[in-house]
Amino acid sequence: MSGAEAGDGARIPLEVRPSGIQGLGVFACGPIAPGTRIIEYTGEVISEEEGDRRYDDRGMARHQTFLFALSDGRCIDGALGDNEARFINHSCDPNCETVEIDGTIWIEAIRPIAAGEELTYDYAYERTEGDEARASFYRCRCRAPGCRGTILAPGRA
Ligand SMILES: C[S@@+](CC[C@H](N)C(=O)[O-])C[C@H]1O[C@@H](n2cnc3c(N)ncnc32)[C@H](O)[C@@H]1O
Ligand SMILES: [Zn+2]
Fold first, then answer.
1. Which 3 state secondary structure label does DSSP give 93?
2. What is the reported pTM?
3. Domains and CATH numbers, the chain
4. Which of these ranges, 19-23, 88-92, 153-157, has the smallest mean pLDDT?
């Protein structure tokens, strides 16, 4: 267990452990109220070109990225350092959302989260040409009743 630094300075106890969704996930160690700023997505801020160079979807056998896109086109690479937020998985029915504040990204609760519940947000990855043809590459395994079947943003089938 560890404590993430919440936006208001409080410590939100979180645990990184294997997830039923994929690989490792992040779990709440206690109840979290809606609106709580839980943890910052930290890492190295890099250009879009450098992000594409480090994580080339076309060259991967399985989709795996620790990039978080900022609104100005740059992205945060959370791969290195002490960033537990990089292990938060996607869900089509998430309990968190991400907010950008002055070039920083925070994960906030959007509904009550119970102790032991996995934290999730909607990745809504940007669709680029040809993604539809690679449906299995981006397949979502969130198991939510309304799962849209992909970690890509909602769009054409
Ligand atoms: C930021 S990492 C999340 C942590 C990841 N579970 C791990 O152990 O490294 C993002 C990667 O997790 C996987 N992932 C997250 N949510 C997923 C989901 N709902 N369905 C399938 N794969 C998912 C994808 O491989 C994605 O590229
Ligand atoms: Zn899903």
1. coil
2. 0.91
3. 2-134 (2.170.270.10)
4. 153-157
